[in-house]
Design a protein that fits this description.
Layout: H1 19-41, H2 47-69, H3 83-110, H4 127-157, H5 162-176, H6 185-201, H7 205-224
């Protein structure tokens, strides 16, 4: 990525996250994730409910931190007045990203490469659990992750330039996701798209929308295979 200054939209204040907000948010996310892992390891059968509760707690905690230590939701590009426009732009970005993805898949198929297995997700078979899976993985997780990785991490490093913020946000995002084997194509591609959209639009609702719709499409594809 070519690091170019000046992408920031008018009114974008996503470079105002200070060290206090970063450290507290980071510590709370690690604490909540650790507690969730311990509960799951003890044999809890409702894993998605536990993960959903963890994501919801993270959302509440980080937003509270932003309100207390920063200048409210505008400091991460998530002011209520920006949400409708951010959702609309997120739909446009998602459409463009979908077209590029389809074109890329077509090229891979022409070269005899089937990329489908790399995007499959293990889905539950019980209908009620499928609904919970979509709620957690398609809504709560994208909101929590974008607030943390883009809103807080990108917002903290952005004051030193696009390059450092971009690399930090994408790298930590990829590392934080559990990677079993192989190159994390989906995580890297997603991290890049989410970060670029956030930098250009200055509205956190844009990457939230792209992330949420992207996850849901992957879930639907996995259900139909």
């Amino acid at each position: 990525m070519v690091c170019i200054q000046g992408f920031k939209s008018a009114g974008m204040e996503t470079d105002r996250i200070r060290i206090n907000a970063l450290l507290v948010s980071f510590a709370m996310v690690i604490l909540v994730e650790g507690a969730a892992m311990i509960i799951v390891a003890k044999g809890c059968s409702d894993i998605m409910i536990i993960l959903g509760c963890a994501r919801l707690i993270e959302i509440i905690v980080i937003i509270t931190v932003i309100i207390i230590w920063e200048q409210g939701l505008p400091s991460i590009g998530l002011a209520p007045s920006m949400m409708a426009d951010g959702f609309r732009k997120g739909l446009i970005w998602s459409t463009g990203f979908g077209i590029v993805a389809l074109f890329s898949f077509a090229i891979l198929f022409l070269f005899g490469i089937n990329p489908a297995p790399s995007i499959y997700t293990n889905m539950p078979v019980v209908h009620s659990k499928i609904v919970i899976f979509f709620l957690v993985g398609g809504i709560l997780a994208p909101v929590a992750e974008e607030i943390f990785f883009r809103g807080v991490i990108y917002g903290f490093f952005r004051k030193w330039g696009v390059c450092l913020a971009f690399v930090s946000s994408v790298l930590i995002f990829v590392i934080a996701h559990h990677i079993v084997a192989g190159f994390p194509v989906i995580q890297v591609a997603g991290g890049i798209i989410f970060t670029v959209a956030y930098e250009i639009e200055g509205n956190l609702m844009v990457p939230i929308t792209i992330h949420s719709l992207g996850n849901m499409v992957l879930f639907i594809i996995s259900l139909l295979r």
